[in-house]
Amino acid sequence: IEKARRMDPDGDYRLIDEGDLSEFQENTYDLALAVFTFDNVPTMEAKVKLLAEMRRLLKSDGRIINLVSAPQIYTHEWASFSTKDFPENRQANSGDKVRIVMTDVVDKRPVEDVVWSDEAYQETYQQAGLHVVATLKPLAKEDEAYEWVNETRIAPWVIYVLQKVRETLSRKRIVRTF
Protein backbone atom coordinates (compact mmCIF):
# COMPACT_ATOMS: atom_id res chain seq x y z
CA ILE A 1 0.00 0.00 0.00
CA GLU A 2 2.85 2.37 0.79
CA LYS A 3 4.34 1.79 -2.67
CA ALA A 4 0.96 2.49 -4.30
CA ARG A 5 0.62 5.70 -2.30
CA ARG A 6 4.12 6.81 -3.36
CA MET A 7 3.33 6.11 -7.00
CA ASP A 8 -0.15 7.67 -6.82
CA PRO A 9 -0.33 10.17 -3.95
CA ASP A 10 -3.83 11.29 -4.97
CA GLY A 11 -5.20 7.73 -4.81
CA ASP A 12 -7.16 6.30 -1.89
CA TYR A 13 -5.54 3.04 -0.79
CA ARG A 14 -6.79 1.10 2.22
CA LEU A 15 -6.12 -2.25 3.83
CA ILE A 16 -9.43 -3.69 4.98
CA ASP A 17 -10.41 -6.83 6.85
CA GLU A 18 -11.33 -9.71 4.57
CA GLY A 19 -14.78 -9.14 3.08
CA ASP A 20 -15.54 -6.14 5.31
CA LEU A 21 -16.65 -3.25 3.14
CA SER A 22 -18.66 -1.58 5.92
CA GLU A 23 -16.47 1.54 5.97
CA PHE A 24 -17.61 2.37 2.43
CA GLN A 25 -20.83 4.31 1.85
CA GLU A 26 -23.64 2.56 -0.04
CA ASN A 27 -24.88 3.73 -3.46
CA THR A 28 -21.65 5.67 -4.03
CA TYR A 29 -19.61 3.95 -6.73
CA ASP A 30 -20.03 3.76 -10.49
CA LEU A 31 -17.61 0.87 -10.85
CA ALA A 32 -16.08 -1.89 -8.74
CA LEU A 33 -13.27 -4.03 -10.15
CA ALA A 34 -12.35 -7.48 -8.84
CA VAL A 35 -9.37 -9.09 -10.57
CA PHE A 36 -8.87 -12.77 -9.65
CA THR A 37 -10.28 -12.02 -6.19
CA PHE A 38 -12.94 -14.71 -6.48
CA ASP A 39 -10.42 -17.39 -7.54
CA ASN A 40 -9.55 -17.55 -3.84
CA VAL A 41 -12.93 -17.14 -2.16
CA PRO A 42 -13.71 -20.72 -1.12
CA THR A 43 -17.49 -21.03 -0.77
CA MET A 44 -20.73 -19.96 -2.40
CA GLU A 45 -21.77 -18.32 0.87
CA ALA A 46 -18.58 -16.26 1.07
CA LYS A 47 -18.75 -15.27 -2.61
CA VAL A 48 -22.41 -14.21 -2.30
CA LYS A 49 -21.70 -12.20 0.86
CA LEU A 50 -18.80 -10.32 -0.74
CA LEU A 51 -20.65 -9.68 -4.01
CA ALA A 52 -23.74 -8.48 -2.11
CA GLU A 53 -21.49 -6.05 -0.22
CA MET A 54 -20.02 -4.81 -3.50
CA ARG A 55 -23.58 -4.49 -4.87
CA ARG A 56 -24.53 -2.36 -1.85
CA LEU A 57 -21.78 0.11 -2.72
CA LEU A 58 -22.88 0.60 -6.34
CA LYS A 59 -25.02 3.44 -7.58
CA SER A 60 -28.26 2.23 -9.19
CA ASP A 61 -26.64 2.14 -12.64
CA GLY A 62 -23.19 1.08 -11.40
CA ARG A 63 -21.28 -1.96 -12.62
CA ILE A 64 -19.01 -4.62 -11.19
CA ILE A 65 -16.30 -6.03 -13.43
CA ASN A 66 -15.34 -9.49 -12.15
CA LEU A 67 -12.32 -11.05 -13.87
CA VAL A 68 -11.95 -14.72 -12.92
CA SER A 69 -10.00 -17.75 -14.05
CA ALA A 70 -11.99 -20.03 -16.34
CA PRO A 71 -12.11 -23.69 -15.24
CA GLN A 72 -10.17 -24.52 -18.43
CA ILE A 73 -7.09 -22.70 -17.16
CA TYR A 74 -6.62 -25.55 -14.67
CA THR A 75 -6.80 -28.34 -17.27
CA HIS A 76 -4.68 -27.07 -20.18
CA GLU A 77 -1.17 -25.82 -20.82
CA TRP A 78 -0.50 -22.13 -21.46
CA ALA A 79 2.33 -19.81 -22.44
CA SER A 80 2.85 -18.77 -18.81
CA PHE A 81 0.98 -21.44 -16.80
CA SER A 82 1.27 -25.20 -16.44
CA THR A 83 -1.14 -27.78 -15.02
CA LYS A 84 0.54 -30.94 -16.36
CA ASP A 85 1.63 -32.01 -12.85
CA PHE A 86 -1.94 -31.81 -11.53
CA PRO A 87 -4.12 -34.34 -13.39
CA GLU A 88 -6.55 -34.28 -10.46
CA ASN A 89 -7.64 -30.81 -11.65
CA ARG A 90 -9.58 -32.55 -14.45
CA GLN A 91 -12.02 -34.05 -11.92
CA ALA A 92 -12.44 -30.85 -9.91
CA ASN A 93 -15.94 -29.47 -9.39
CA SER A 94 -16.97 -25.98 -8.36
CA GLY A 95 -15.61 -25.29 -4.89
CA ASP A 96 -12.72 -27.75 -5.19
CA LYS A 97 -9.13 -26.65 -4.78
CA VAL A 98 -6.97 -26.81 -7.91
CA ARG A 99 -3.30 -26.12 -8.49
CA ILE A 100 -1.40 -24.37 -11.25
CA VAL A 101 2.20 -23.22 -11.74
CA MET A 102 3.18 -19.84 -13.15
CA THR A 103 6.06 -20.55 -15.54
CA ASP A 104 7.11 -16.94 -16.16
CA VAL A 105 8.20 -16.17 -12.59
CA VAL A 106 11.16 -17.31 -10.48
CA ASP A 107 8.99 -18.92 -7.80
CA LYS A 108 7.68 -22.13 -9.39
CA ARG A 109 5.69 -23.31 -6.37
CA PRO A 110 2.10 -24.23 -7.25
CA VAL A 111 -0.62 -21.68 -6.71
CA GLU A 112 -3.79 -23.05 -5.13
CA ASP A 113 -7.11 -21.66 -6.33
CA VAL A 114 -10.77 -22.62 -6.04
CA VAL A 115 -12.35 -23.63 -9.35
CA TRP A 116 -15.82 -22.19 -10.08
CA SER A 117 -17.87 -22.97 -13.19
CA ASP A 118 -19.87 -20.50 -15.25
CA GLU A 119 -23.07 -22.12 -13.95
CA ALA A 120 -21.88 -21.68 -10.37
CA TYR A 121 -21.02 -18.03 -11.02
CA GLN A 122 -24.47 -17.46 -12.55
CA GLU A 123 -26.09 -18.86 -9.38
CA THR A 124 -23.72 -16.85 -7.19
CA TYR A 125 -24.57 -13.61 -8.97
CA GLN A 126 -28.30 -14.31 -8.77
CA GLN A 127 -28.10 -14.95 -5.03
CA ALA A 128 -26.14 -11.70 -4.59
CA GLY A 129 -28.82 -9.70 -6.43
CA LEU A 130 -26.70 -9.15 -9.52
CA HIS A 131 -27.48 -9.54 -13.22
CA VAL A 132 -24.87 -10.48 -15.83
CA VAL A 133 -24.84 -7.71 -18.45
CA ALA A 134 -22.03 -9.28 -20.47
CA THR A 135 -19.70 -12.27 -20.40
CA LEU A 136 -16.40 -11.89 -22.21
CA LYS A 137 -13.94 -14.69 -22.95
CA PRO A 138 -10.96 -12.99 -24.57
CA LEU A 139 -8.65 -14.96 -26.84
CA ALA A 140 -5.12 -14.19 -27.96
CA LYS A 141 -4.43 -13.50 -31.62
CA GLU A 142 -2.17 -15.75 -33.66
CA ASP A 143 -0.29 -12.78 -35.14
CA GLU A 144 0.87 -11.53 -31.73
CA ALA A 145 4.55 -11.73 -30.83
CA TYR A 146 4.06 -14.53 -28.28
CA GLU A 147 4.30 -18.28 -28.54
CA TRP A 148 0.76 -19.02 -27.46
CA VAL A 149 -0.08 -22.60 -26.50
CA ASN A 150 -3.88 -22.70 -26.16
CA GLU A 151 -4.67 -19.01 -25.71
CA THR A 152 -5.87 -18.54 -29.31
CA ARG A 153 -8.50 -21.31 -28.97
CA ILE A 154 -9.45 -21.44 -25.30
CA ALA A 155 -10.02 -18.43 -23.06
CA PRO A 156 -8.13 -18.86 -19.77
CA TRP A 157 -10.13 -16.07 -18.15
CA VAL A 158 -13.71 -14.84 -18.04
CA ILE A 159 -14.79 -11.24 -17.56
CA TYR A 160 -18.28 -10.77 -16.12
CA VAL A 161 -19.91 -7.34 -16.29
CA LEU A 162 -22.54 -7.16 -13.55
CA GLN A 163 -25.21 -4.73 -12.42
CA LYS A 164 -27.77 -4.59 -9.66
CA VAL A 165 -31.05 -6.41 -10.14
CA ARG A 166 -33.75 -3.83 -9.54
CA GLU A 167 -37.09 -5.14 -8.35
CA THR A 168 -40.29 -3.14 -8.66
CA LEU A 169 -43.83 -3.98 -7.72
CA SER A 170 -46.09 -4.10 -10.76
CA ARG A 171 -49.63 -5.50 -10.88
CA LYS A 172 -49.12 -7.34 -7.59
CA ARG A 173 -46.10 -9.24 -8.81
CA ILE A 174 -42.41 -8.59 -8.72
CA VAL A 175 -40.83 -7.68 -12.03
CA ARG A 176 -37.08 -7.71 -12.40
CA THR A 177 -35.63 -5.07 -14.66
CA PHE A 178 -32.08 -5.06 -15.92
Report what the structure shows.
The chain has 178 residues and is α+β, with helices and mostly antiparallel strands. The chain has helices spanning 2-7, 44-57, 118-127, and strands at 29-35, 58-69, 81-82, 97-102, 111-114, 130-136, 157-164, 166-170, 173-177. It is globular and about 45 Å long. It starts with a helix and ends with a strand. 20% of the residues are buried. It holds the Pfam family Methyltransf_11. It comes from marine sediment metagenome. InterPro entries: Methyltransf_11, SAM-dependent_MTases_sf.
Measured on Cα atoms, how large is the radius of gyration?
19 Å
CATH class: Alpha Beta
- The fourth-level CATH homologous superfamily is Vaccinia Virus protein VP39
Give the count of helical stretches: 3
**Structure class:** alpha+beta
Biggest sheet overview:
4 strands, mixed
Number of domains: 1
Helix content: 10-25%
Write the layout of secondary structure elements.
Layout: H1 2-7, E1 29-35, H2 44-57, E2 58-69, E3 81-82, E4 97-102, E5 111-114, H3 118-127, E6 130-136, E7 157-164, E8 166-170, E9 173-177
Parallel strand pairs: 1-2
Antiparallel strand pairs: 2-7, 3-4, 4-5, 6-7, 8-9
Helix pairs in contact: 2-3
